[in-house]
């Protein structure tokens, strides 16, 4: 009986507490998908194909700008979407 109370009572308390809302991976995944879609569109607008440009000093300036924008978007997802309440 003691093991029951030690394990299940805290679970019941946590399950019944609706104030505990955590950020979910769903919001983060959707945000990352949006960022990647924008990066693909950015590359396409520059006449490039996303994922085929080698990151080298000879990479086109448009690819470097798209990569910088993708990095900013992903960082924003990590700081905002991971902490957004998900019901």
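-> sequence recovered:
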């Amino acid at each position: 009986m003691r093991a029951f109370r030690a394990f299940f009572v805290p679970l019941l308390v946590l399950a019944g507490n609706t104030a505990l809302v955590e950020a979910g991976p769903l919001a983060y995944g959707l945000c990352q998908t949006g960022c990647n879609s924008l990066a693909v569109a950015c590359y396409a607008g520059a006449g490039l194909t996303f994922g085929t440009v080698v990151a080298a000093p000879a990479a086109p300036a448009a690819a470097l700008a798209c990569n910088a924008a993708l990095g900013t978007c992903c960082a924003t997802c990590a700081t905002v979407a991971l902490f957004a309440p998900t019901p």
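Helices lie at 2-16, 25-45, 61-81.
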